[in-house]
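step=encode ok
step=design start
structure_in=
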């Protein structure tokens, strides 16, 4: 169904999804496929700052068509504080790159084709005044008038500063974030400084005191960005510095974007009766890397299944299954990445050791296998023991530089 501006709804929806990014669009699509009436509210006109990297597993699991990939990165190059670089080629795989404006819109259109009703609007609040139905208040696009739709259930997929989470969940107002900023530029010709098939990542305190900076290829464009939780740190100045040092200052800037990125998953996603949050609203962005698209869509799928079960059973434990299932599959990975970010990103001395460690072929192989398949690789226990002792050596400062 097509997007609506200010309609009159003849009957209540089963589910109203607030936010049309990868998480919200996935929830709307999968619930609509089961014949439920779904409204998908999306404010429109905003593109989230994002490197746009997606793993092959996402492409497979969510039937993403090839034409949405604007580039396939087959290697990464990471830079230490001393500007020493380490190449990390991807053997037998790639990192898919997407433009979020095109990718997110395709996901929303797919949800609409499954039966979801798109509503271009700004969400305001949820009122409870009609028995078991929720009144979702919103302002339609290009209008200051308030409109209302009724729904049995609401899914909040409205980003890191989720209005739904702040209103409906106690922990929603206390979430901590990293702020990300990037500039989309027209890609220059390929050179040693910029390669359209390579992701460049900078672990340098002058570019980010607690995260990293990046240059990611997007075909005809590229994303140059940085993240930090340090409120006094100038992200714009860091990007300007990175562009200057990589010879990208003269490239035409297409657009600039900024937004918060959550630091860790919330302990509770639902209120036990009629609201659940997912995606950035629930904090499911990978620590250390900031990767969120795959986890948003996986969380969206699990949330859709939990909501469908709850609409049938009315049992609150069915809602809790979304988070339990997600954390059972990804909790250990998130914990490991969180420890890694806390330790290795804390000083340039440690960043230097981290980049040295990443030069190890075993580390590279297991890193890419885990990324592409989205699971820890335990098929080679001796390899993991070997890497553990190498990592311990670098942690203690006794690893050999290369």
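sequence_out=
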């Amino acid at each position: 169904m097509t997007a609506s501006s200010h309609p009159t709804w003849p009957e209540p929806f089963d589910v109203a999804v607030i936010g049309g990014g990868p998480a919200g669009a996935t929830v709307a699509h999968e619930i609509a496929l089961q014949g439920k009436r779904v409204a998908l509210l999306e404010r429109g006109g905003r593109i989230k700052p994002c490197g746009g990297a997606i793993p092959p597993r996402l492409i497979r699991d969510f039937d993403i068509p090839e034409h949405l990939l604007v580039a396939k990165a087959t290697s990464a190059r990471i830079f230490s504080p001393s500007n020493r670089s380490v190449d990390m080629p991807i053997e037998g795989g790639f990192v898919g790159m997407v433009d979020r404006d095109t990718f997110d819109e395709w996901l929303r259109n797919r949800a609409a084709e499954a039966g979801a009703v798109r509503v271009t609007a700004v969400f305001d609040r949820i009122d409870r005044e009609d028995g078991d139905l929720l009144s979702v208040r919103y302002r339609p696009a290009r209008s200051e008038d308030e409109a209302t739709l009724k729904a049995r259930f609401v899914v909040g997929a409205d980003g890191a500063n989720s209005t739904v989470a702040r209103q409906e969940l106690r922990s929603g107002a206390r979430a901590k974030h990293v702020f990300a900023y990037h500039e989309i530029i027209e890609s220059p010709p390929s050179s040693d400084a910029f390669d359209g098939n390579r992701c460049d990542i900078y672990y340098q305190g002058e570019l980010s005191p607690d995260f990293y900076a990046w240059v990611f290829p997007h075909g005809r464009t590229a994303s140059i960005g940085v993240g930090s939780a340090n409120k006094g740190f100038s992200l714009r100045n860091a990007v300007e510095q990175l562009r200057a040092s990589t010879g990208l200052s003269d490239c035409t800037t297409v657009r600039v974007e900024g937004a918060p990125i959550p630091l860790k998953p919330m302990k509770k996603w639902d209120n036990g009766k009629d609201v659940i949050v997912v995606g950035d609203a629930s904090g499911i962005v990978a620590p250390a890397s900031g990767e969120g698209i795959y986890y948003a869509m996986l969380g969206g799928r699990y949330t859709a299944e939990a909501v469908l079960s709850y609409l049938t059973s009315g049992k609150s434990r069915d809602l809790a299954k979304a988070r339990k299932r997600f954390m059972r599959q990804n909790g250990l990975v998130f914990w490991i990445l969180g420890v890694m970010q806390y330790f290795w990103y804390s000083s340039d001395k440690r960043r230097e050791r981290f980049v040295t460690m990443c030069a190890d072929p075993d580390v590279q192989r297991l890193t890419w296998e885990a990324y592409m398949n989205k699971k820890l690789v335990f098929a080679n226990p001796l390899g993991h023991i070997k890497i553990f002792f190498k990592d311990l050596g670098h942690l203690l400062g006794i690893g050999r530089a290369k």
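step=design ok
step=annotate ok -> The chain has a mean pLDDT of 88.
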